[in-house]
TrEMBL record:
Name recorded for this polypeptide: Photosynthetic reaction center cytochrome c subunit
The species this protein was found in: Methylobacterium marchantiae
Compositional bias (Low complexity): 344-359
Residue ranges with Pro residues bias: 360-372
Keyword Signal annotated: no
Function field: The reaction center of purple bacteria contains a tightly bound cytochrome molecule which re-reduces the photo oxidized primary electron donor.
Region (Disordered): 343-372
Gene: pufC
Length: 372
C-alpha cells in the first residue's frame, strides 16, 4: 500500500509539473547567436530572434530622395545668407532641404527652422543650430570616415529619427538636490540611472568621459598592463566609473562585453576584436562632437532646451546606434547625399573640428570565427 501511494504521489507530481509548464505559456524563445571571437573564448552575441526582428524594424533608414536634376547654379549665388552649403547646386540644395525636413521636422515643416516670409532671416535659434549640425554631420563623414563611421556615414535622420529633438540625448546629472535636512553624500552613485543600466554604479560617467574633449586618454583605463603592479594604480571608484561607461556602450549598441573584449584578458588589445578599435575612436568622436559642436551652442539654445545645470544637450553612443551595433541596420545612408559627405566652404570664421587621433599602438587582429 505504501508503494502504491508513493507511485501515485510521484505520478500526480509529474503530471502537475507537466501541466504547469504546458499551460503557463512558458517556452524558451528562439535564440539567434553570432560568434565574433575565436572558438572556445565564449565571445558570442546572444539575442532572441523576436528581439532582433523588433530592433531591425525600429531602425529602418528612409529611402533617399530622387536624385537632383543637373544644374550649375550654386545655392550661395542664388539665395541669401547661405553659409554652409554655398557651393552646392541649387537643385541639390533644395533636395537636401526637403530631406532634412522629413528627417527632423516632418510635422512642423520648413517653419521649424525658417521664417518663411524671409528665408534668409536668422532670428530662429533652430536655424542657427541646424547650420552647425550640418557642419557637424560633414565633419563626421569626413574626419571620422576611416576611423569610425566608414562608408555608411550618417545623416540627420541617424540621430533625429523624424523628431526635432533626438530621443537619446543627455545632460549632466547633478544628483539629488535636497533643499533642507542633511546633504546627501552618495559619491555620485547608488541612484538608478538608465545610463548605467539602472545599476548602483556612478550615474554621471558620461560627463566625465564623453563631454570633455581634452580628457586624458588614459582616464578610462583601469586594468594593469603587467602581471605585477608597477605604479600606484587607480582607486576602485575609477573602476566603477569605467564599468558604468562600458555598460552604457554595451546597451547603446545592444551587445555584451565580448563584442569588443576577450574577457579573459580585458586590457589585451591583441586578444580583442577589431570592434574595440572602432569603439576606441568612437569615444573620441563623441567627445569631439560634444566639445566642438554642441557645448559651444549653449548660448544659442533657449533655457528650456538646456539641462538643469544650464548645459547644452549632448550625444552619446545610443544617440546614433539606438541599440544596434551598426546604426540603421548598417544602411549606406551617405552616398545619396554628397553634400553631407564632405566639408563645404563656410562663410566667416567657422570652427573646424580636429582630425581623429591615431589608433592604439597595438590594434587587434581580425579573428577567424568558427562555422556556426
Amino acid at each position: 500500500m505504501k508503494t502504491f501511494f508513493t507511485v501515485l504521489g510521484a505520478s500526480i507530481a509529474f503530471f502537475l509539473t507537466i501541466a504547469m509548464f504546458g499551460t503557463s505559456g512558458w517556452v524558451r524563445p528562439p535564440l539567434q547567436t553570432t560568434q565574433n571571437g575565436f572558438r572556445g573564448t565564449g565571445m558570442d552575441q546572444i539575442h532572441t530572434r523576436a528581439g532582433v526582428a523588433a530592433a531591425k524594424d525600429a531602425n529602418l533608414a528612409p529611402a533617399p530622395a530622387d536624385p537632383a536634376e543637373p544644374g550649375e547654379e550654386l545655392a550661395g549665388a542664388t539665395y541669401e545668407n547661405v553659409q554652409v552649403l554655398k557651393n552646392v547646386s541649387v537643385n541639390e540644395f533644395n533636395r537636401l532641404m526637403t530631406s532634412m525636413t522629413e528627417w527632423v521636422s516632418p510635422e512642423q515643416g520648413c517653419t521649424y527652422c525658417h521664417n518663411t516670409e524671409n528665408m534668409a532671416d536668422d532670428s530662429l535659434y533652430q536655424k542657427k543650430v541646424a547650420r552647425r549640425m550640418l557642419q557637424m554631420t560633414q565633419a563626421i563623414n569626413t574626419n571620422w570616415k576611416e576611423k569610425h563611421v566608414g562608408g555608411t556615414g550618417v545623416t540627420c535622420f541617424t540621430c533625429h529619427r523624424g523628431q526635432p529633438v533626438p530621443a537619446n540625448i543627455w545632460f549632466t546629472n547633478p544628483g539629488p538636490n535636497h533643499t533642507s535636512g542633511f546633504v546627501p553624500r552618495n559619491n555620485g552613485q547608488n541612484m538608478a540611472s538608465p545610463s548605467v543600466g539602472l545599476s548602483s554604479l556612478p550615474y554621471d560617467t558620461l560627463t566625465e568621459y564623453l563631454a570633455d574633449k581634452n580628457i586624458d586618454n588614459n582616464a578610462i583605463r583601469v586594468n594593469a598592463t603587467t602581471a605585477l603592479p608597477t605604479t600606484k594604480g587607480k582607486p576602485i571608484q575609477d573602476a566603477e566609473k569605467t564599468y558604468g561607461l562600458m555598460i552604457h556602450m554595451s546597451e547603446g549598441l545592444g551587445v555584451n562585453c565580448t563584442f569588443c573584449h576577450n574577457t579573459r584578458a580585458i586590457s589585451n588589445w591583441s586578444q580583442s576584436t577589431p570592434q574595440r578599435t572602432t569603439a576606441w575612436h568612437g569615444i573620441r568622436m563623441v567627445r569631439d562632437l560634444n566639445g566642438n559642436y554642441l557645448e559651444p551652442l549653449t548660448s544659442t539654445f533657449p533655457a528650456a532646451r538646456l539641462g538643469v545645470l544650464g548645459d547644452a544637450p549632448k550625444v552619446n553612443c545610443t544617440t546614433c546606434h539606438n541599440g544596434q551595433s551598426k546604426p540603421l541596420n548598417g544602411a549606406q545612408v551617405i552616398e545619396p547625399y554628397p553634400a553631407l559627405a564632405k566639408s563645404t566652404e563656410v562663410a566667416g570664421a567657422a570652427e573646424t573640428a580636429p582630425a581623429a587621433e591615431p589608433a592604439p599602438t597595438a590594434p587587434a587582429p581580425t579573428p577567424v570565427p568558427a562555422p556556426q
